[in-house]
Write a structure and sequence with these properties.
heterodimer; A: alpha/beta; Rossmann fold; four-stranded parallel β-sheet; 13 helices; 13% strand; B: Fumarate Reductase Iron-sulfur Protein, Chain B, domain 2; six-stranded parallel β-sheet; 10 strands
């Protein structure tokens, strides 16, 4: 099938390897990947700050670009939640209300797409490391994605998986991290401590934004623990 | 100091306090273990939540009928029902009862509504002696503090700190064992029960069908408060009503499970009136004060009306990573945690209290934990929208307008990435200093290195 890959602004600018891995995986599975150059952002930053007019200014053209897409795949639980859950809310009582619902129903978060839509878990990847998984809150609670990433990691050769004892938010929260840096940092420290406690070499997630926050703290702490996007793990040979 | 500056200043202090972090984290991790065990004892916790949400929906959406029915039943057995539109009215009603009874001393069981209307402070100013009889409340009262948590008022204190407090304030504390500390508090309190003129309680549920107020407690103090003094006053919010007596079969275990990980709270008592002819105990007079205090404004708000479903179990506080890190006192509100962040802007003003809705990652842990399925974290988002729409912050709005222009034009977006890449070395020179535009981030965290080739560059070059 033709997959329209929505690359979130974070991945585009800061973590291109994650996006490249998604393209390579989807193409290896025999799908045609298209990636509209005109879409930069889903509009979540202004939306979460309460500036819904500005959010619509960004989201409306994105929605138009996705109008004819058969399947939209997005490499972030958070941006995925924006499209799937919040676009219908953002465009309620506007001429694009119906389109927002349609696009939402055709949009998939990357890991969920592989497992639930394509029924694929084994991508032939090898990653001989001990890893733990961080559930980004939007992917976990808005989209209910918990088992898909674990099913995929379960099939990676040489990978040893260990859960963190505590399930908690990493403290990123978009502009929250800048508006309330002290709380954000404290939450991140709790997360890093939980991950470190597992003895893992890598924290894997399906959200680059959470990983950016966690890695930012780990690097400052001088920790050896590293973060990596799920797609990059699945693309390792 | 504005409410937001106060919040930020206290949050900075608490988030740095590693002892606080460890005390709260340890307490709430053990709560999670017992709560999950009790949740598993329900045939289906999710179905129970759904049923509870539907019952509360019915209660709140027909609140007018239920309150009339409740009042009629209460009055039929001789209870005096009072209606208070706001805190000042409620305080005046209560003061008037105390004057009529020529009361001097009041013993209280736990009531968050009394915190909401700042009752203790008002009564003490009028010269009354007010003693809290819930152990946690008793402790924070001795410290001249507000409750730290709506269910566990003194959870921020260790046994050692309570022992020191008792030694200082009561002159007695043989050890820091819970048994010894409880015995000290009991000796003090028992005397107060016997001499109190009025017993004051809150209420967990009000049953419209039978005209009963249900009070849940673990210590038996509310029973003594209600049984010993000649006059009893109960203050509760109008939203605490449940349609039927049978609803308690769900709500009592649910409150205990979500709130404290207990199968049932130790004492659940339904009060249906003052002492009736032929009865040997109970108060001679019972006054029930039903408090609005802007709850009806929330009732008129279709989008967030479900926040009146709250049964004040504290489950959303317990799981909230913000609450866990900043602590209860930082909020500066009667109701803290997610539910406090949702309702305080409605009860006390959106612009003054919108920062509580901003101080969230919208992680949704609260909504998942809420036993009556209040859409808490989405209400935080709506509060943000309402605040930004009615009074936009000039620079923030401008920043998003600019961001929208850049995001919508591929050439601008590409240029922005290039500028970001080029300015990286400059930024790293001033990292964490006052000159660093990203200092809110870089004070405690590293920024990710930005590669020269973005994903879109790679995609274009590949074709």
């Amino acid at each position: 099938m033709t997959v329209t890959l929505f690359i979130p602004c974070f991945i585009d600018a800061l973590f291109p390897r994650a996006g490249i891995s998604m393209v390579e995986i989807l193409e290896r599975l025999g799908h045609k990947v298209v990636c509209p150059n005109e879409i930069a952002c889903c509009g979540q930053p202004p939306f979460n700050s309460g500036y819904w007019d500005e959010a619509r200014t960004i989201a409306a053209p994105a929605l138009e670009k996705l109008k004819d897409a058969e399947t939209v795949v997005i490499g972030s639980g958070s941006c995925g939640a924006m499209i799937k859950k919040f676009y219908p809310e953002l465009f309620k009582n506007t001429p694009q209300a119906e389109l927002a619902k349609q696009v939402a129903s055709r949009t998939w978060e990357f890991s969920d797409f592989l497992v639930s839509k394509l029924g694929v878990t084994d991508l032939g990847a090898k990653f001989p490391h001990k890893v733990t998984f961080h559930d980004g809150c939007h992917g976990l609670r808005e989209l209910g994605i918990k088992t898909a990433p674990r099913a995929l990691l379960g099939k990676v050769g040489g990978l040893e998986f260990v859960e963190m004892k505590e399930e908690s938010c990493c403290g990123f929260g978009g502009t929250f991290a800048a508006k309330f840096p002290m709380i954000s940092t404290a939450m991140g420290e709790v997360k890093c401590a939980a991950a470190t406690e597992t003895g893992a070499d890598f924290i894997v997630s399906n959200d680059s934004s959470c990983l950016m926050h966690i890695q930012g703290l780990l690097s400052r702490q001088g920790s050896k623990l590293k973060t990596i996007h799920l797609a990059e793990v699945l693309n390792q040979k | 100091m504005s409410f937001v500056s106060q919040f930020k200043s206290l949050a900075s202090e608490k988030t740095r306090d590693l002892r606080h972090r460890s005390v709260i984290r340890t307490a709430l991790r053990s709560y999670e273990v017992v709560r999950d065990k009790r949740k598993a004892a329900f045939q289906s916790w999710e179905s129970a939540r759904q049923a509870a949400a539907e019952t509360k929906w019915e209660a709140i959406n027909h609140l007018d009928e239920h309150l009339v029915a409740l009042t009629a039943k209460l009055e039929a057995r001789g209870t005096k029902v009072h209606w208070a539109s706001n805190g000042a009215q409620a305080r005046e009603i209560i003061s008037q009862i105390l004057r009529d009874k020529k009361a001097r001393s009041i013993i209280k069981s736990k009531a968050m509504t009394s915190e909401e209307i700042h009752l203790n402070h008002a009564l003490e100013k009028e010269g009354y002696t007010v003693v809290e009889s819930d152990l946690g409340e008793f402790i924070v009262q001795l410290r001249h503090e507000a409750p730290y948590h709506i269910v566990f008022p003194s959870m921020h204190l260790t046994r050692g700190e309570i022992k020191d407090l008792f030694q200082k304030e009561l002159g007695d504390a043989p050890s820091d064992s819970p048994e010894d500390l409880t015995m000290v508090a009991r000796r003090v309190m028992r005397q107060k029960y016997l001499t109190a003129d009025v017993g004051f309680t809150g209420g967990n549920f009000a049953i419209a069908e039978t005209g009963m107020i249900s009070i849940t407690e673990n210590e038996g103090n509310a029973r003594l408060t209600a049984a010993l003094p000649k006059t009893m006053i109960t203050l509760m919010g109008i939203e605490k009503v449940l349609p039927r007596f049978a609803d308690l079969a769900l709500f009592l275990p649910m409150l205990a499970t979500a709130g404290a990980g207990q199968p049932m709270t130790c004492y659940n008592t339904m009060y249906s009136g003052p002492r009736q002819p032929g009865e040997c105990d109970g108060p001679e007079e019972w006054h029930v004060v039903l408090l609005d205090n802007r709850r009806t404004e929330l009732l008129a708000n279709a989008e967030q009306r479900d926040s009146l479903h709250c049964i004040r179990c504290g489950a959303c506080l317990n799981v909230c990573p913000i609450f866990r890190n900043v602590g209860g006192h930082t909020y500066g509100t009667t109701y803290s945690g997610p539910v406090g962040a949702v309702i305080t802007p409605h009860l006390r003003g959106l612009q003054d209290w919108k920062h509580l809705s901003n101080a969230s990652t919208l992680c949704g842990g609260c909504t998942e934990a809420c036993p009556v399925k209040i859409d808490l974290h989405h209400h935080l988002l709506q509060n943000r929208r309402n605040a930004s729409t009615s009074e936009p912050a000039f620079f923030e709005k401008l920043a998003y307008q600019t961001f929208a222009i850049v995001a919508n034009e591929p050439a601008f977006w590409s240029l922005a990435k290039k500028i970001g890449w080029l300015t990286q070395p400059l930024q790293s020179l001033v990292k964490g200093t006052a000159l660093d535009p990203a200092k809110a981030w870089t004070k405690t965290r590293e920024l990710p290195p930005q590669p020269l080739e973005s994903f879109k560059d790679w995609w274009k070059n590949r074709k």
